[in-house]
Amino acid sequence: MNKEEKYDLVVALSEQMKEYGNFYITDTSDLTVAKVNNIRRQCFEADITMKVAKNSLIKKAMEANGGDFSSIYDVLKGSSSIFFSKSATAPAKLIKQLRKKGEKPILKAAYIDSAVFIGDSQLDTLTKLKSKEQLIGEIVGLLQSPAKNVISALQSGGNTIAGLVKTLQERG
């Protein structure tokens, strides 16, 4: 790979980091070409983009992106593959599914909406993360619940008060 190709790869990786907002760095070393192609096919089916790149180029892409990726730099050793996805949990679920058939890929690190998860032990946590839309929906639901209760109480109480006022008027 010449200098210009490396530069283009760094720019492409950096743009994908910005575009997707979520990426997973995994260890896919020692896998056969057939197994890597199988992983790529499953990534494609799950709407995940998989890239294999040298660690030094991944680090340069992170530096070019401007975020705080310093905690990820330590895991950039050995062979690394990057999984990009709009969904924060899709790559974790795919990795977990792939691990039922073999020991790899191993999660080195994940970057999810500015949160960093280091190590393969984080895989279960990552599969259970809720999307931004799910969290917003839950918050809206929680906020609406008390308001609905107050409105309901006022409406039912209003009918009682209106009936009471009407009765008092008829007596007077």
TrEMBL record:
**Which GO biological process categories is it annotated with?**
translation
Record keyword Ribonucleoprotein present? yes
Name of the gene this protein is made from: rplJ
Q: Which InterPro entries match?
A: Ribosomal_uL10 (IPR001790), Ribosomal_uL10-like_sf (IPR043141), Ribosomal_uL10_bac (IPR022973), Ribosomal_uL10_bac_type (IPR047865)
Instruction: Quote the cellular component terms of the Gene Ontology held in the record.
Output: ribonucleoprotein complex; ribosome
Keyword Transferase assigned: no
Matching SUPFAM superfamilies, A to Z? Ribosomal protein L10-like
Key words of the record: Ribonucleoprotein, Ribosomal protein, RNA-binding, rRNA-binding
List the CDD domains hit by this protein, alphabetically: Ribosomal_L10
A GO molecular-function descriptor: large ribosomal subunit rRNA binding
Among PANTHER family, the record links this protein to: 39S RIBOSOMAL PROTEIN L10, MITOCHONDRIAL
* Name this protein carries in UniProt: Large ribosomal subunit protein uL10
Q: How does it assemble?
A: Part of the ribosomal stalk of the 50S ribosomal subunit. The N-terminus interacts with L11 and the large rRNA to form the base of the stalk. The C-terminus forms an elongated spine to which L12 dimers bind in a sequential fashion forming a multimeric L10(L12)X complex.
Q: Name one Pfam family in it.
A: Ribosomal_L10
What's this chain's function?
Forms part of the ribosomal stalk, playing a central role in the interaction of the ribosome with GTP-bound translation factors.
**Stated family:** Belongs to the universal ribosomal protein uL10 family.
